[in-house]
Design a protein that fits this description.
This protein is mainly alpha-helical and 195 residues long. It is 82% helix and 0% strand.
């Protein structure tokens, strides 16, 4: 029962779910419903691209499962995500999307880069990084949303421990990286909006 609950929380706390959800809520508040709807379409297309690419890796026999649990699978996925997120940030900027979107995507790419650079010392939890980043974005929508997301982040940390995907050091590193990305977004987004 506990393992099933931990698995459900881990799935709900997946980076491909939490960050887009937070970004869409923030965009609805700051940019409007129409722009947020287009962002939602873009996020769905990005998720389909990542899942399609991951499925292709499984079909080719390079991965055991689309969740990329093994070290080499995770490294390959992170390289793909880093390039895809950076490219999405650049293309979004070129296409005239709000600069906050490009910033958010660039910071997401930076989280992947930090995880890759630190892999020798720590298996930084990207679940924790992205759920913490999302919590700080949601705090911009309303403080209560930020508190709820912070509590959810604690549940995600618990789930990653129960599932034995990480040790506490990995979770702390992820939370710190995500908090750094969130603080940078909160600091830089108003400057981009004003320019």
């Amino acid at each position: 029962m506990i393992h099933a609950l931990a698995r459900a929380v881990s799935i709900l706390g997946h980076p491909m779910l939490v960050l887009p959800a937070a970004a869409l809520l923030l965009a609805t508040r700051t940019l409007g419903v129409r722009e947020a709807a287009w962002m939602g379409v873009g996020f769905a297309a990005f998720a389909a691209l990542v899942m399609g690419w991951s499925g292709w890796q499984v079909r080719r026999g390079r991965w055991q499962h689309v969740d990329a649990s093994r070290h080499e699978e995770r490294r390959t996925l992170n390289r793909f995500l880093l390039v895809a997120l950076a490219l999405a940030a650049v293309l979004g900027g070129i296409a005239g999307q709000p600069p906050q979107l490009a910033l958010g995507l660039a910071l997401a790419a930076a989280l992947i880069a930090v995880a890759m650079l630190g892999a020798r010392w720590c298996k930084l939890s990207l679940h924790m990084a992205f759920v913490t980043y999302a919590a700080l974005l949601l705090a911009q929508v309303h403080p209560a949303w930020g508190i709820a997301a912070g509590l959810f982040a604690a549940l995600v940390a618990w789930s990653r421990l129960v599932l034995r995907r990480h040790v506490p050091r990995d979770l702390v590193a992820g939370a710190l990286a995500g908090a750094g990305a969130g603080v940078l977004f909160i600091w830089l987004a108003p400057k981009l909006a004003a320019s």
